[in-house]
TrEMBL record:
<comment type="similarity">
    <text>Belongs to the glycosyltransferase 34 family.</text>
</comment>
<keyword id="KW-0808">Transferase</keyword>
<dbReference type="GO" id="GO:0006487">
    <property type="term" value="P:protein N-linked glycosylation"/>
</dbReference>
<keyword id="KW-0812">Transmembrane</keyword>
<protein>
    <submittedName>
        <fullName>Family 34 glycosyltransferase</fullName>
    </submittedName>
</protein>
<dbReference type="GO" id="GO:0000136">
    <property type="term" value="C:mannan polymerase complex"/>
</dbReference>
<keyword id="KW-0328">Glycosyltransferase</keyword>
<dbReference type="GO" id="GO:0000009">
    <property type="term" value="F:alpha-1,6-mannosyltransferase activity"/>
</dbReference>
<feature type="transmembrane region" description="Helical">
    <location>
        <begin position="29"/>
        <end position="48"/>
    </location>
</feature>
<dbReference type="InterPro" id="IPR029044">
    <property type="entry name" value="Nucleotide-diphossugar_trans"/>
</dbReference>
<keyword id="KW-0472">Membrane</keyword>
<dbReference type="InterPro" id="IPR008630">
    <property type="entry name" value="Glyco_trans_34"/>
</dbReference>
<dbReference type="Pfam" id="PF05637">
    <property type="entry name" value="Glyco_transf_34"/>
</dbReference>
<keyword id="KW-1133">Transmembrane helix</keyword>
Length: 313
């Protein structure tokens, strides 16, 4: 009987091939990915449910102390000391009667980067918002203006939501006479955060009431953005404000437009609605630094009348 010989092993074996590591590497990469996903999910769960209610951002609610801060920027380099004293005393005596605060600063306190010095007004408003976070409102009132009814509070004149509701001019061109951008129709008094009026040419940026809060800070920071400062608007910060209001619905949505004589009557009637006895504020817009039409000369009657009224109180 013949038996088959078992096959011989080749004397030339194939080269050694190490065991493939492809699958273990894939498994490691997959495990690492799964681990990262789990960490992300756990982090999201912690953010949504683990943080306390106090850690969630909430806008600061002012205490109303002081209720109103009157902001005025003066220019001692150009105007006489006697005139500027009357302006400051007008603000201070009025504020003392009602428990308000004054924030009177010099234009030179602010660096306007070589642009018009009037930009200091916007910077002062932003400064006052930071300095008095608990005030209900800041009221920017120009240097060339006088409060004429010391017995009346800002709240009863315009700031109280119910009073404001009765004064607001709705669905009206922001820039007269025929701007296609108009004030909101359905804005409520309590929702308004900037109270302003118009003259013959546009918004009166020299008497502005701002409700303190995030929106006011946003508006002032946008208003004094270097882009607008460098744009060389003809009337600097006034035209910049008109541009912002017309192009930014976030700003327009909280603008309350009121009749000019509410808080910005003009001594010169060719520029806007003229001052009448009993008006809250007179603005000497158009007065000059010196000469016959100087602000100091034009203010004398108004300053004397204010002192008479303050004594009567």
């Amino acid at each position: 009987m013949h038996f088959a010989y078992p096959p011989r092993k080749s004397s030339d074996p194939p080269p050694f091939r190490p065991r493939s590591t492809r699958f273990p590497l894939l498994r490691k990469a997959r495990l690492r990915t799964i681990g990262l996903i789990l960490v992300a999910i756990l982090g999201l769960v912690w953010l949504l449910s683990g943080r306390s209610q106090e850690e969630v951002y909430q806008e600061h609610v002012p205490t109303g102390e002081p209720p109103i801060v009157i902001v005025t920027v003066i220019d001692p380099r150009s105007y006489s000391a006697s005139y500027l004293r009357s302006v400051q005393e007008n603000r201070r005596q009025y504020a003392e009667k009602h428990g308000y605060e004054t924030f009177i600063v010099e234009a030179q306190d602010y660096d306007t980067k070589g642009y018009q010095q009037s930009w200091a007004k916007v910077m002062a408003m932003r400064h006052a918002l930071s300095k008095y976070p608990n005030a209900n409102y800041i009221w920017h009132l120009d240097q060339d203006a006088f409060i004429m009814e010391p017995s009346r509070k800002v709240e009863e004149v315009v700031a109280d939501p119910r009073v404001l509701e009765s004064l607001m001019i709705r669905d009206h061109p922001v820039v007269p006479p025929d701007s296609i951008i108009k004030t909101f129709k359905h804005l409520k008094g309590q929702e308004a955060a900037m109270i302003i009026s118009q003259d013959n040419d546009g918004l009166v940026a020299d008497s502005v009431l701002l409700k303190t809060g995030d929106w006011a800070r946003y508006v002032t920071e946008t208003w004094m953005d270097p882009l607008y400062m460098s744009y060389n608007f003809q009337k600097a910060e006034r035209h910049a404000l008109e541009h912002i209001v017309q192009w930014h619905p976030t700003v327009l949505s909280k603008i309350a437009l009121v009749p000019q004589r509410t808080m910005a009557s003009y001594a010169h009637t060719n520029l806007g609605e003229g001052y009448r006895e009993g008006d809250f504020v007179v603005m000497l817009k158009g007065c000059t630094v010196a000469g016959e039409s100087s602000c100091e000369k034009e203010s004398q009657w108004y300053w004397q009348r204010f002192r008479e009224l303050i004594v009567q109180m």
